[in-house]
Specification:
Largest sheet: 6 strands, mixed
Distance between the termini: 90 Å
Structural class: alpha+beta
Number of helices: 7
Strand content: 35-45%
Strand order of the largest sheet: 1-2-3-4-6-5
Shape: globular
Helix content: 25-40%
Length: 320
């Protein structure tokens, strides 16, 4: 009798274990489908900051044109990068199903950052979504996007205060960081200047220097690009065009550990880059993390920008 009872108990345990295994498999499949659904070209997802760091390094070393890469991403998976959204004209906006009112504001010259973000300013890292929009960087889990609206309402009426370069926990669903980039008191460089072509005022060379900290991503660098005016009223007036661009630089800079006064001098960098492309950019250094460890600032040096447009050239030197 005891023997039959023992066999019955073992059978029940086996069925229960099998049921749990089936539930785990279903749950894993459900989670995988959710990840694939979110990553269906709509948002880049990384399992760790190390994976993101490697991805950025490989992208930089490959020297790919990030605007063209963004177009390939859309054709392959439907993802619209923020870089693409910022660099197309009206006729293309319809193809990418873009509404200007829905495009977030990320005031950065770093094309790598803009490439990583989708049109909503989002990237997924270690299961959390980081979203840059206007003056804030939001951190939340998938499905909690609506909390941002509640925060903004409280912030606008003064219920919530956030200091520049500080993180607050709004509630268990949302953390908010006020980045403070492009504000003089934080020495965040965001120099953007233009140099027109004498034979065609509808075209200009755009020269940029940047060093900004976006909580999960920080970088310093410079770039040269050429833009042409397109007469449209509901999308970009100036559109990036391919031409011969060059960036030459010599720069010394520092890496400050975030939250401290510790600064480390980096070895001066020198290079001369030219290509027939949408833009020529050099990221001197970058880091990622929660938060990214360093905030970089230039100490001294220069960037030299040159572009050619059908035989005519534009040239400018900007000192740090």
């Amino acid at each position: 009798m005891n023997r039959y009872l023992l066999l019955l108990m073992l059978s029940i345990l086996t069925v229960a274990c099998q049921s749990n295994e089936d539930e785990n498999i279903i749950e894993k499949e459900k989670l995988t489908n959710e990840v694939l659904s979110r990553a269906d070209g709509r948002i880049l997802s990384f399992s760790s900051f190390k994976e993101l760091e490697i991805f950025i390094k490989e992208s930089i070393e490959s020297g790919q044109d990030l605007i063209e890469l963004s177009k390939s991403d859309f054709d392959r998976s439907g993802r619209v990068s923020l870089l693409l959204a910022y660099n197309i004209e009206a006729e293309e906006a319809e193809r990418y199903q873009l509404n200007k009112k829905e495009i977030v504001e990320v005031n950065s010259s770093d094309s790598m950052l803009l490439y990583l973000l989708n049109k909503n300013g989002e990237i997924s890292i270690e299961g959390a979504i980081y979203r840059i929009d206007g003056e804030f960087v939001y951190t939340y889990k998938h499905g909690n996007e609506n909390v941002i609206e509640s925060f903004l309402l409280d912030y606008k009426v003064g219920k919530i205060k956030v200091s520049d370069q500080k993180m607050i926990t709004y509630n268990k669903f949302l953390k908010v960081y006020k980045h403070g980039n492009n504000k003089k008191e934080f020495s965040s460089r965001g120099i953007v200047r233009h140099e027109s072509f004498s034979n065609d005022r509808s075209v200009k060379m755009r020269l940029e220097q940047f060093d900004q900290h976006w909580y999960f991503y920080s970088s310093i660098g410079a770039k040269t690009k050429t833009e042409q005016y397109r007469k449209v009223w509901f999308w970009n007036a100036w559109v990036t065009v391919k031409t011969n661009n060059r960036l030459k630089f010599g720069v010394a800079y520092q890496a400050k550990i975030v939250g401290t006064n510790i600064r480390m001098n980096r070895s001066p960098l020198f290079d001369n880059i030219s290509n027939h492309t949408n833009e020529v950019m050099k990221i001197y250094e970058f880091c990622v993390g929660a938060p990214a460890l360093f905030h970089y600032t230039a100490v001294e040096g220069y960037t030299e920008h040159w572009a050619e447009w059908y035989g005519n050239t534009a040239f400018k030197v900007v000192n740090y």
